């Protein structure tokens, strides 16, 4: 009788009450919440030991034609491109075409005198000191003009080095533009041809390649940006400009093939693969960041280019992979990738919930008004307009921030929050910007 009672009780209980939700269900629940609250659009993939646990698209690949995102949708990768270029460079070293210790001027025409100490190793690891041309205030004015690497090099060849090569780390798209030129000189073929024959074809990546506006590309996603709370088509960006640094496209399924090829030895010797993941400075190897997450080694990189943001995380100890490719600039793929990894490893994570503004005394805002320095050339300005509190980052528009407590505020135009930090006397001399899974402190400046 006792056994019968237990069986009846089990039959009457829903399955989810006696067993944990499968990973796929948890991921979908998490992603649906981000779609509702943050308008996420894109595709995600979670895999372990080469086996797909989740591969799904969310939102639209094209809003005008009402085409949904799928695992086969092609997205621009942005700076994830760099890891492919890094491996291509090490392939050429294996074949005796170059050495990463070679001076870069050995492969460049009209190489400036200041670059004589710069090696290929410095370019790969962002330790060259060469000025990052995409940091130029007028870079957005150049997006539409075709410019292959040799021409793009002219935009920064006369800039002085920012530091002695090898002494510091500073992210530089310029370095990877130069690597595309090195690749062409050393291999004797075009960048596009080399990548196709030596990376994508051996890895079985049939849905990846160099993006061009002219090509008719099946399943290509359109890129979107948000302005004043509304989505619009992202500004045109000619894809000849970021060759080597951000020009490639791919799918989440092809990114899994890339991940597996790095384990298999199809593309390079194990020693070369290991060098990709060996940090030089600032946890950065060759085209990859190497750090710790959830008590595991994480090998990752993000990307962003007009209308697209991306993130890939590899966890070699578990042979696990998380890929997030989005055609919505505000998607926060690094945060999404981190949360999907948390689901995969059974770690804590939060499902997105709507921000709720509370009522506070606007007189408090006077103590918050000021300028806060996030980086040497990046200031967060806070101003008051009657009962509203506004913020403006260097080079960006002014936006309102809304209180969820007396000291913590949220933005509606992007997924970000700002905390005003009071000292023992109640003065505010610091803010913390919470965005992209990072907490970034900024001290008050005059």
Question: What do you see in this structure?
Answer:
It is a single chain. This protein is α+β, with helices and mostly antiparallel strands and 446 residues long. The chain folds into two domains: 75-345, 3-Layer(aba) Sandwich (Beta-lactamase), CATH 3.40.710; 362-445, Lipocalin, CATH 2.40.128.50. 26% of the residues lie in helices and 26% in strands. It has eleven helices and 21 strands. The strands form five sheets. The protein has an eight-stranded antiparallel beta barrel with strand order 14-15-16-17-18-19-20-21. It has a six-stranded antiparallel sheet with strand order 2-1-13-12-11-10, with helices on both faces. Strands 5-9-6 form a three-stranded antiparallel sheet. Strand 16 and strand 17 form a beta hairpin. Helix 3 (23-38) packs antiparallel against helix 11 and helix 4 (81-94) runs parallel beside helix 7. The longest helix has 16 residues, at 23-38. It is globular and about 70 Å long. The chain starts with a helix and ends with a strand. Mean pLDDT is 92; it is low at 1-19.
